[in-house]
Amino acid sequence: MFPNSLIQKFTFIPAFVTTQNLQPHGLRSLRCIETSDFFCIYNLQCRLAGHIMSEMGFAFMSAEMKRSYYEDIQPLKGWPARVWFVVLVAVLVAVPFVIKSYYVYVLSLMAVNVIVALGMNLLVGNTGHISLGHAGFVAIGAYTTVLLISGAGVVFPVALVAGGLIAAAFGFILGIPALRLEGPYLAIATLGFGIAVTIIIGRVELFGGHMGLIVPKPEIAGIDFSGDRALYYLVMGIAMLMGFAMRNILKSRLGRAFHSVRDSDIAAATLGVNVARYKTLSFAISAFYAGVAGGLWAFVLGFINPGLFSFVLSILFLATVVVGGLGTILGSVLGAVVITFLNLQAESIQHVPVIGEVLIWISQNFMTVSGLPNVSWIFTGLILILIVIFEPLGLYGIWIRIKIYWRTWPF
Amino acid sequence: MPENDFFRVEGLTKRFGGLTALDKLTFSVEKGMLFSIIGPNGAGKSTLFNCINSLYRPDEGKVWFRGKEITGLNPHRIAAAGIGRTFQNIELFANMTTMENLMLGRHLHMKTGLFGAAMMFHRRSRAAREEMVHRERVERIIDLLELQASRDKFVSQLPYGTRKVVELGRALAAEPELLLLDEPAAGLNNEEKEDLIFWIQDIRREFGITILMIEHNMQLVQDVSDRILAINFGKMITEGEPDEVVNHPEVMKAYLGG
Description:
The complex is a heterodimer of chains A (411) and B (258). Chain A has 411 residues and is mainly alpha-helical. Chain A is built from 16 helices and eight strands. Chain A has helices at residues 4-8, 35-38, 79-98, 101-126, 134-150, 156-178, 183-203, 228-251, 253-263, 265-270, 275-301, 311-324, 329-345, 353-366, 372-390, 394-407, and strands at residues 21-22, 27-28, 45-47, 51-53, 213-214, 219-220, 223-224, 303-304. In chain A, the strands form four sheets. In chain A, strands 1-2 form a two-stranded antiparallel ribbon. In chain A, helix 4 packs parallel to helix 8, helix 8 (228-251) packs across helix 9 and helix 8 (228-251) runs antiparallel to helix 11. The relative contact order of chain A is 0.15. Chain B folds into two domains: 2-82 and 176-256, P-loop containing nucleotide triphosphate hydrolases (Rossmann fold), CATH 3.40.50; 98-170, no CATH class. Chain B is built from ten helices and ten strands. Chain B has helices at residues 45-52, 75-81, 98-105, 114-118, 126-144, 160-173, 190-207, 218-224, 242-246, 249-256; strands spanning 7-16, 19-29, 34-38, 60-65, 68-69, 83-85, 178-182, 210-214, 227-232, 235-240. Classes of the chains: A mainly alpha (411), B alpha/beta (258). The interface between A and B is large, with 48 and 57 residues.
């Protein structure tokens, strides 16, 4: 999707002091501190379409000793990561007590979009497929969850998982034609799926037609989660759990198989990777994430109707992972947070001096339907274009630069 | 009886439109052998490998491996049956590290499923333990092929010669019983070629793998092969001991054009 030349511009950044191999095999030992090494040029490694990994830091600043192979696959490796994680959790727990209720709702929306983005990134960034129909999976998840609770009286957690599983089943079915389609053809096929789902839902009485459905109260074991704060904790907790699960999947045998399908399906097959299975599995997992997110979204909004799941939403999901950074968990998170924020807050651009006035002027003079939505869409589109042009690795690329800057700070 | 042979190709034919790339090719390989296939460019050598691997469907003929017919099975099933391979033009996973490439070689031997992988939260979780066991095996291959320096580098950053070695290592990591090497020495310098000869012999001794090798480098072929098959225009010219084949008048004619 991105030529290597775009990625190569990142390879100049400082990196790698010599490493020595001591026991056990293959674990990087203490990085040696030698004056000549200070001026070594580090080697910043990157992955397809913005997947960079930095394995760096000057020796004296981040001496690092690995004692077991497990440390290469451990979540939250090392104490700084753990401390930051605890800080993050503490902030996320405390924040609803500090901010206005509207912003609690915004945070919940962000968490929902993070879940969709995680699934989307598995499909697009890690398996190398494309989908313009993810809004369809979100819709399937949302309607299944709501109908199971209000229609069939199923308890909330079961309904949520069922919504995800039904979406996954549709993802699996959509994955079958994907075995033969690639690139633009697959984009069109998935686009058709997404639109068809919205239209069908809008015409069926059971689904409430265009009027949609009112969402019942989410209840787990008699506890009502319908308050802004309670719902926020629920959604955030699920998003975090699903984020870690995705991280684990990507670090495991399955994650490697997904990558192998992306990079060379011929070689993958000759190593015993069942290419067809992993392609459809990737669709199914991706749809599961979208389905669960759909179920949660319904509760965050309080109502659902087919208009919510338009194909513009699908395109925003794709934009989320591209802007965030393809093939990385952090990219999904950053992308979802920024896109959600832009989507809701872009209107405030009108208060910015010059730019806001210019945008409003454009909207009033050149557009048939004038008003704020125009302004915010222009602004959102502009930001997306700028990010893709100036930071092809997405927000994840910016994050990596910041990290390197601080690691090598005095220099 | 084909069932008794370790590996046997029988009457294999592949046509691309009017071109017959393989023409009723028949040969068999005994267990433990290093069997080389030589022939000028376009003789059908790589096509033969692709037919064995099921990347192409042969038009006629059968392939037998350990008493079972494997013709036309899915490529991943052929890998599971115990046939590994390398490619002439290197088919590595360019955006993964050397380590990850080699770990993919272990794919067939690992069992972690979706749920197990998602729950890999702890050192003692089944998925993590399996990961570590197989990492150990991969580290051994890294040591054998002296790939320590490239372990955590992305394959796209490695020089050509090293990539060839990584690809060999990846095939080895899968622990195949039959290894198909498609021009392993192509594009290597002399030093790397010598290393390669050493490794091929090492691999046979340590892993007891049967090797089927396509190679242009006559020196290498003569040094390491037990038997050689010479083909041209998809047909067998001759098959036999290295000295016989290399000095066969038709082989010399095919190579020297005289």
